[in-house]
Amino acid sequence: MEKKTYHIPVLLEPAVEQLAIRPEGVYVDLTFGGGGHSRRILQDLGETGRLYGFDQDRDTLANRPDDARFHYVASNFRFLRGALRWRGVEQVDGILADLGVSSHHFDELDRGFSFRGSAPLDMRMNQRGRLTAADIVNDASVEELTRIFRDWGELETPWKVASCLDRARKGGRIETTAALVEAVRPCTPKKDESKFLTKLFQALRIEVNGEMEALKMALEQSLKVLKPGGRLVVISYHSLEDRLVKNFLRSGNFEGRIEKDFFGRAATPFEVVTRKAITPDVEELERNPRSRSAKLRVGIKCE
Fold it and tell me: Does residue 198 belong to any structural domain of this protein?
């Protein structure tokens, strides 16, 4: 039987190029996953260089490269600074984060990330976590569901979807992805069914895993961890993530609010390299259609 590819790394060469790797440097891959970006970074590191790969999903342990320069960190990247300090690392030369969900998670139906097929309504990246998508779907209030679908899914009528789901769950608990799809069928647009379900499942996944809060924490810690001149390279896949990253690189906060010093000069923590996000070229889109929404942004920490 042919072995499935865990994940095809997105914007591989542009991302590593933007890290501007120094052979003796120390780097972090915040989203190790299938290890594609990490293996490419190791190609440019010298014998004394080091790379720390973070991942909270135990499935990724099998992807670790057999390389003494690589250090696997079994942790959510929200604990970036503490995890590095525990390993004796105060500052690093570059940080890479690919915020996409691995192909592995969509292809392994029993994880509940895909609306195709039927699987337990799980969606936990960290299988040790307690909260599942089923917990939210069955136990959250209509108001809470409305917030989740509005903020994380950017659905046009989140209150309508929440009410539709509430009516369905009164007939019994919704425990599978197929049952969820059926539950929201009355409010699913016929024309854009796939797009609608993608946003719905995205919203639940983000809530289950606390993704936006984790991203904010990692970005804020990156400023403390990066050396002056160090690079932050982030690949995002939807507008919520991209907005946070863009604003943070531009201003050091998530609202995009530019602070000024005593002399009225903009006090920005990064030199923004990518005024316009780098996106996959035609060749990559043909090779990996899942890369179509990827946006890469880069900042250099100011001296």
Answer: yes
**Total-model pTM:** 0.89
Half-sphere exposure of 50 (CA within 13 A, CB side): 12
Rounded Cα–Cα distance for residues 70 and 166 (Å) = 48
Closest CA to 275 of 293, 257, 249, 255: 249
CATH number of the domain at 226, please: 3.40.50.150
CATH code, domain carrying 160:
1.10.150.170
Strands 270-272 and 295-301, bridge-based pairing: antiparallel
Residue 182 DSSP one-character state: H
Domain with 162, as residue range(s), is 111-209
Residues 6+ apart with CB under 8 A from 200: 115, 149, 153, 155, 161, 180, 184
Instruction: Give me the tens of pLDDT residue by residue for the chain, a chain 303 residues long.
Output: 334 455 679 999 999 999 999 999 999 999 999 999 999 999 999 999 999 999 988 888 999 999 999 999 999 999 999 999 999 999 999 999 999 876 555 556 677 778 888 899 999 988 778 899 999 999 999 999 999 999 999 999 999 999 999 999 999 999 999 999 999 999 999 889 999 999 999 999 999 999 999 999 999 999 999 999 999 999 999 999 999 999 999 999 999 888 777 666 777 899 999 999 999 999 999 998 888 999 999 999 998
**Structural domain total, the chain:** 2
CA–CA gap between residue 129 and residue 151 (Å, rounded): 22
Instruction: Report the side by side order of strands in the sheet with 270-272.
Output: 70-73, 50-54, 26-29, 92-98, 226-236, 295-301, 270-272
Q: Which two three-digit tokens encode residue 131? A: 């909260």
